[in-house]
Specification:
The complex is a heterodimer of chains A (269) and B (325).
Chain A: E1 2-6, E2 9-11, E3 19-20, E4 23-24, E5 31-33, H1 35-49, H2 53-57, E6 60-66, H3 72-81, E7 85-89, H4 99-116, E8 119-125, H5 136-144, E9 148-152, E10 154-158, E11 163-170, E12 173-180, E13 183-187, H6 199-207, E14 211-213, H7 226-229, E15 232-239, E16 247-250, H8 255-265
Parallel strand pairs in A: 1-6, 1-8, 6-7, 7-14, 8-13, 9-13
Antiparallel strand pairs in A: 2-5, 3-4, 10-11, 11-12
Chain B: E1 5-9, H1 19-29, E2 33-38, H2 44-52, E3 57-62, H3 74-88, E4 92-96, H4 99-112, E5 115-120, E6 122-125, E7 131-137, E8 142-148, E9 153-157, E10 174-179, E11 188-194, E12 210-214, H5 223-232, E13 235-238, H6 240-245, E14 263-267, H7 273-276, E15 284-289, E16 302-305, H8 308-324
Helix pairs in contact in B: 3-4, 5-8
Classes of the chains: A alpha/beta (269), B alpha/beta (325).
Bound molecules: flavin-adenine dinucleotide (FAD) and adenosine monophosphate.
């Protein structure tokens, strides 16, 4: 079976993130694989590992990322976990893409990979930690015309029956959903514990190439992606003024009273 | 006011509308004529609420009964909304903001080729008549504005961004059915349970005006957190670590619930970036921590360096005494 995992290269959440000309600054020294996508990679690898030897030998996990060349660092990180193949889609014509454009491009890449070998599952993370949209998986399922099983806290794939079953707990609703393969699944950070890279794979990942595709390699109309295809445009981006320093009280027996006074004084109770 | 038609999806019409829905009705009214969309019969209470928010028309989807539980799938609700947009010739669709509504919004935006903004805090008409959504991003450190360039706009609005307000002259609200032909899709609902919201108890975490979060510093004892939360009428939440420990069931943060209350109190919470991403837009931030170097202090307005097991009960007692006086 073939599983495609779209992964995103994002600025490290611990770094000082910023905008320039209304676009998120992607400083290569501060970039990383979106942590939540590690759960998607883990889910894909463990499904393949559950197969018998023959099926396993005929299976692969392919990650796809839409980004500039710096994103190879994110792809390499997935190689260290055991991913077989990585594709980076880079093209000037993709700059300024919104969710729809991103999903359209990723869908075209999935179709191309499917032309080689049928794709059984597309597994994404629940959100990219830069924009926190949680919507690309939905667009992707719609673009591919596949069932969507999103925000899974548990994922079970029955490779014999060719079905995927997910459990999701969203607010006050608990759901178990099932769909035939192929399907698009997004997994939450509850779905599994991503493995640590293994030493042998770390060494191998250094030399393992990342395939590069451009728009010309994909069946997607150029005017429907990038800035020209975008339906939203960031028109302003401003840093928030720094917060004034906190009023700090050291508890010497009166800390709780001081807290109560603060709340009462500011009409917060 | 323009001649825009704005559709608002109501998620709990069968009971009563909760604050986030009233907030988006209020926001929608500033943009044009508002119509509500529902997939189940609105209660008498909901109709009264709609009337006092100036909504004259509710479009109720009539779905094939064969759909069963699939009627609740995001893809189904998205088809309902898309049909309502066409029927009403609407210009904008507003939804509350949570994982489910974001899914519905994305699907409807896809199907209508409409621009989408999720988690907006503001929505206004820009200089050229297009809608411009404002939101706070990167863990609350930047404010951005996003212009929607399509004829139809789809926007999810985070809670507590707007103060709900009724109209001076309540109107008569009528419900109009419209048939939506939704075919059962490939997804089967194997199981679905909805937990009733108990309004007599604590406010809902995602919509509360005050939130108290207990972190690992509670060491599993949520007694002081609960007691303090009760004294100020706040909702209770936790950090992800606490939920993974099994000490509490709901956590605040980038992968949990996003909260934007007037008051956030974090007790025994270090203030990791993942946690901050889900609370940093709170108006007033208070931290209680025995480590004076804890990162949450960096974004706090008021902080107590101390043991939460001492500080919280004392504060709760002082607040109760104040309320009784
Ligand atoms: C992909 C990913 C997503 C994540 N998403 C989230 C998320 O959405 N939400 C979230 O919360 N976390 C999330 N996390 C986890 C996050 O990074 C932190 O690990 C977590 O928030 C820390 O929880 P904590 O503050 O309770 O614990 P700690 O960091 O251990 O902090 C405990 C604090 O309690 C203080 N303390 C100890 N004893 C006392 C006492 N008696 N009185 C007062 N203070 C005391 C300590 O000084 C310390 O500051 C995520 C992590 C990852 C990798
Ligand atoms: N540019 C991208 N390239 C590859 N995958 C992406 C990209 N953007 C989003 N994704 C995938 O979609 C998921 C959700 O992203 P988002 O909807 O942006 O929060 C991520 O966890 C990734 O799996």
């Amino acid at each position: 079976m073939r599983i495609v995992v779209p992964v995103k290269y994002v600025p490290d959440i611990q770094s000082d993130r910023a905008f320039e000309d209304c676009r998120l600054v992607r400083d290569p020294s501060e970039g990383t694989l979106n942590e939540l996508d590690e759960h998607a990679v883990e889910a894909a690898l463990s499904i393949i590992e559950s197969l018998d030897d023959d099926a396993r030998a005929a299976s692969d996990v392919v990650v796809v990322t839409m980004a500039g060349p710096d994103a190879d660092a994110a792809v390499r990180k997935t190689y260290q976990m055991g991913v077989d193949r990585g594709v980076r889609i880079s093209d000037e014509g993709l700059e300024g893409s919104d969710y729809a454009g991103t999903a359209r491009t990723l869908a075209a890449a999935v179709r191309r990979l499917g032309d080689e070998t049928p794709v059984d599952l597309v597994i994404t993370g629940m959100a990219a930690l830069d924009g926190l949209g949680s919507v690309v998986p939905v667009y992707l399922a719609a673009e591919l015309g596949l069932p969507q099983l999103t925000n899974a806290s548990e994922l079970d794939v029955d490779t014999a029956a060719r079905t995927a079953r997910v459990t999701r707990d969203l607010g006050h609703v608990h759901e178990v959903l099932e769909a035939p393969l192929p399907a698009v699944v997004s997994v939450s950070d509850h779905a599994n514990q991503p493995r640590y890279p293994n030493f042998k794979l770390i060494m191998a990942a250094r030399k393992k190439p990342v395939e590069e595709w451009s728009l010309a390699d994909l069946d997607v109309a150029a005017e429907t992606v990038g800035e020209s295809g975008a339906r939203t445009r960031t028109s302003r981006a401003e840093p928030r003024p720094p917060r004034p320093e906190a009023e700090i009280v050291v508890d010497k027996g009166e800390g709780g009273t001081a807290l109560a006074d603060f709340l009462i004084r500011n009409e917060l109770v | 006011m323009t001649n825009r038609t704005v559709l608002v999806l109501l998620d709990t019409p069968a009971t009563a509308l909760r604050s986030p829905a009233l907030e988006i009705l209020t926001l929608a009214r500033s943009l044009g004529r508002v119509e509500a969309v529902v997939t189940e019969s609105p209660s008498v209470q909901t109709l009264a609420q709609l009337g006092s928010h100036g909504v004259e028309l509710v479009r109720q989807a009539e779905l094939p009964s064969t759909l069963g539980e699939s009627a609740h799938l995001s893809t189904t609700v998205a088809q309902v909304l898309a049909a309502a947009v066409r029927a009403a010739d609407a210009d904008a669709v507003l939804l509350t903001s949570n994982f489910v509504t974001k899914e519905i919004a994305a699907r409807v935006a896809h199907d209508l080729d409409a621009g989408l903004v999720v988690d907006a805090a503001t929505l206004v008409e820009g200089p050229d008549g297009r809608l411009v959504a404002g939101k706070r991003v990167l863990a609350g450190s930047w404010d951005t504005e996003c212009e929607i360039t399509t004829d139809v706009s789809v926007v999810t609005v985070r809670s507590n961004a707007v103060v709900p307000a009724t109209v001076d002259q309540p109107v008569e609200t009528t419900v109009e059915g419209f048939a939506v032909d939704v075919a059962a899709g490939a997804v089967t609902v194997v199981e679905r349970t909805v937990e009733e919201i108990d309004d007599a108890g604590r406010p809902e975490l995602a919509e509360a005006g005050s939130v108290v979060v207990g972190g690992r510093g509670t060491d599993g004892d949520f007694g002081p957190v609960e007691e303090f939360a009760s004294s100020i009428g706040a909702a209770v939440g936790a950090t992800r670590d606490v939920v993974f420990e099994g000490w509490f069931d709901q956590f605040v943060g980038q992968t949990g619930v996003t909260v934007t209350p007037r008051l956030y109190v974090g007790a025994g919470v270090s203030g990791a970036p993942h946690h901050r991403g889900g609370m940093q837009a709170s108006q007033v931030v208070v931290a209680v921590n025995n480590d004076p170097e804890c990162p949450l202090f960096e974004i706090a307005d008021f902080a107590v360096v101390g043991d939460l097991a001492d500080v919280l009960p004392q504060a709760a007692a002082a607040i109760r005494a104040h309320k009784e006086s």
